[in-house]
Write a structure and sequence with these properties.
The complex is a heterodimer. By secondary structure, chain A is an alpha+beta fold. Chain A contains 14 helices and eleven strands. In chain A, 46% of the residues lie in helices and 14% in strands. Chain A has a three-stranded antiparallel sheet, covered by helices on one side. In chain A, strands 6-7-8 form a three-stranded antiparallel sheet. In chain A, a hairpin with a 2-residue loop joins strand 9 and strand 10. Chain A is globular. Chain A starts with 12 loop residues before the first strand and ends with a helix. Chain B is α/β, with parallel strands linked by helices. In chain B, 34% of the residues lie in helices and 11% in strands. In chain B, a hairpin with a 2-residue loop joins strand 1 and strand 2. Chain B starts with a strand and ends in a 9-residue tail after the last helix. The chains are: A alpha+beta, B alpha/beta. Chains A and B meet through helix 1, helix 2, helix 4 and helix 6 of A and helix 1, helix 2, helix 5 and helix 8 of B.
């Protein structure tokens, strides 16, 4: 010990995680601290590429949404929506209002499904010292019940509105192929009402978890809500003040290839950017449902929040938002009589671009069509593709802050893993 | 462990993911009303997407995804060496799935188009059975949780495995779904293996054949019907090739 009381002991730390668990897809973490100095901190995506953009070439417009839903097993509705909207924008189609409402309701179902899966099954075990959420079934049956009921409601929403939970069938170019049964909608509304208590219990539960105190100034990118909290289409906005139309997505993403990653990386005004629930909330806090804002207040979560671990809480806040907003949409839907859900479709040559807020952040599909309604060129920019560089640079800052006396390899591995999980990465999606 | 005085096994199960969207393994966490009982009946030894437990003493391996890189071939062979029973779960594992569509393109060109001058390792997509012997195939995109429950019931109580000889058409009739052909759409329901509950035709989409062929499908009649309804050979071929389950069609 020196006279100032500070330690002079040199710290050595090593973290080497091959195929991180409790995330979708395959990624590796490597951290080395030698003699108190950070020598390496890496987040590398090693997922096998599937070449969706190539597979889309030559495909008919009726196939694109079905194919691209398969990019992701968690956010297939987001992909399908981005796909059919890109096609509709290329063909100059405006979908009926009822279809737009149904699409938002399906989107809410997916957001709730993905967020509850992440919050309870992927993120929470770290905070509780568990390897998975499975033991919660016996250790804390109340919380396990809350998780199962909320996820059940989410899946039911997707089933009723989109025809299936994973890989939707009713979301098609022109609108929605099916108007859900009125009784099923009424029952969903009742289920949403019952979920309000479960959401309150979730807020209580997450208030007992200790969120790591870490901040790194970041540029957050999301859709810009004009009247409502945004999910489907609109202008693009960053917390550094960049604003662009949907069609100018390339200027917001600037994808590039790196040696060690099968996922591309993105940047905007800084060396990296972040998308997802925290980005949406940072850009659109005042458009949240009042009940969701009240939940945010309980965690002192207000814009601009630079703690990536708070993305967990932002997801929880969005769960509250989508359940309350779903009740509003269902009320509007059950008042409709003989509603039209499909617009006529006639293919034409041209380009179509669409942005959708998938659970993990803003997602873009961009297609160019020939006059036969077949794709000649496609580009998809995935939320986790936009987050991967930011996770990588966060990791170095996190290690620098926490590589102090008393830190162990095990504790640092947990912290770095928790950082990656906080972004809820959808890795196979990011490689596609 | 005894239940209703019947000795029940508690199979040690591991879930592994390869090339795909990981949507099939996600189905295992669905059907929330029976999720607790489902998890009680099995011992999850390894399941990377939802657990950090990394046990190697599994008896049953559920494989999610297709095989499209050399390291995946090696990983799969090691799993086959350990597992007493290996289950191909979902259309990617059973047939290669939509991932197989890339095989129609030049892979060097595909690499250049996506990654420019920094190509990534890849190879033509294969089904699991192209690499190692498979004990049980459960197709579907995604797989049905009901069917996976029945696989578990087989492992725990020796109940018979689900077997669907009949096509999807029958399940449409059971739920009073209007025939997609009658609505002017192409549908692979007459030749595709049932067991999904026919959610696609009910949701407004003709069947795309994700579960592969039913037992002794009548292809001649199907082609005659599809052509009579005005669909071209290319349209039918495109549809049959989508999930990779109909490669043996004459």
């Amino acid at each position: 010990m020196t006279s100032s009381g500070k330690t002079t002991k040199k710290i050595n730390l090593n973290v080497d995680v091959h195929h991180l668990t409790r995330v979708e897809g395959h990624g590796n973490i490597k951290v080395h601290v030698t003699d108190g100095k950070l020598t390496e901190a890496r987040w590398d995506v090693v997922e096998t590429p599937r070449f969706f953009e190539v597979m889309l070439k030559g495909k008919h417009y009726t196939t694109a949404g079905i194919l691209t839903a398969r990019i992701c097993g968690i956010c297939s509705i987001g992909h399908c929506l981005a796909s059919v909207r890109a096609t509709e924008n290329a063909f100059g189609i405006t979908i009926p209002e009822t279809a737009a409402k149904l699409r938002l309701l399906a989107k809410h179902g997916e957001t709730l499904q993905s967020h509850t899966l992440h919050l309870f099954f992927l993120a929470a075990p770290d905070f509780l010292g568990l390897t998975s959420a499975i033991p919660l079934k016996d250790l804390n049956p109340e919380v396990f019940g809350v998780a199962a009921r909320l996820k059940g409601l989410a899946n039911r929403l997707c089933d009723v509105v989109a025809g299936r939970t994973t890989h939707p069938v009713s979301i098609q170019v022109g609108g929605m192929a099916k108007m859900p049964d009125q009784y099923a909608l009424q029952e969903l509304k009742a289920q949403c009402e019952r979920a309000v208590d479960d959401l309150a219990a979730t807020v209580e539960f997450f208030r007992t978890l200790e969120i790591p105190d870490f901040q790194r100034e970041t540029e957050f990118v999301s859709l810009k809500g004009e009247r409502d909290y945004p999910f489907i289409g609109g202008r693009l906005l960053s917390t550094d003040g960049v604003e662009r139309p949907e069609s100018d997505y390339r200027a917001m993403t600037n994808e590039y290839v790196t040696e060690s990653n099968t996922s591309k990386w993105c940047k905007l005004s800084r060396e990296s950017l972040a998308v997802g629930a925290l980005a949406r909330l940072n850009n659109n806090y005042h458009r949240l449902h009042p009940k969701a804002r009240a939940a945010a207040v309980q965690f002192d979560l207000a814009p601009v929040c630079y703690n990536p671990f708070m993305n967990n809480i932002a997801q929880l806040v969005e769960c509250v938002h989508v359940v309350h907003d779903s009740m509003r949409i269902i009320d509007e839907l059950v008042d409709l009589r003989e509603p039209e859900t499909m617009a006529p479709v006639s293919p034409r040559a041209g380009q179509g671009i669409a942005a959708v807020e998938a659970p993990r952040g803003i997602l873009y599909h961009d297609y160019e069509y020939n006059d036969q309604g077949r794709i000649v060129r496609a580009n998809c920019v995935i939320p986790t593709t936009q987050n991967n560089a930011n996770i990588h640079y966060d990791m170095a800052a996190l290690v620098k802050q926490f590589a102090v006396d008393g830190m162990t390899d095990e504790k640092l591995e947990l912290l770095c893993s928790m950082l990656v999980r906080a972004y809820d990465p959808c890795i196979s999606c990011s490689v596609h | 462990m005894k239940h209703l005085n019947i000795e029940q096994k508690r199979p040690r199960i591991a879930v592994f993911d390869f090339t795909g969207c990981e949507g099939c393994q996600l189905q295992l966490a669905n059907k929330e009303e029976t999720l607790g009982a489902f998890l009680d009946a099995i011992e999850v030894v390894r399941f990377r997407e939802v657990s950090s437990a990394e046990g190697d003493d599994y008896e049953v391996a559920l494989i999610d995804g297709a095989i499209s890189r050399a390291d995946e071939v090696e990983r799969l062979k090691a799993i086959r060496g350990q597992a007493k029973m290996l289950v191909a779960m979902g259309s990617c594992a059973c047939f290669g799935g939509v991932n197989k569509l890339k095989n129609a393109y030049d892979l060097d060109e595909a690499n250049r188009e996506v990654y420019g001058d920094c190509p990534k390792e890849t190879m033509p997509t294969m089904a699991v059975k192209d690499v190692v012997p498979v004990d049980l195939e459960v197709p579907g995109c995604p797989v049905s949780k009901d069917e996976m429950e029945r696989v578990v019931q087989h492992l725990v109580w020796d109940l018979p495995l689900p077997s669907y000889a009949y096509p999807v058409c029958l399940e449409c009739k059971q739920r009073y779904t209007v025939c997609r052909f009658d609505l002017g759409e192409l549908c692979l329901g007459p030749i595709t293996r049932a067991g999904c509950g026919a959610p696609c035709p009910a949701g407004g989409l003709g069947c795309w054949g994700c579960r592969g062929p039913a037992e002794s499908p009548n292809y001649d009649e199907f082609f005659a019907l599809a052509k009579e309804k005005g669909f071209t050979e290319d349209e039918i071929k495109d549809r049959l090739g989508f999930f990779g389950g109909f490669e043996d069609v004459p």
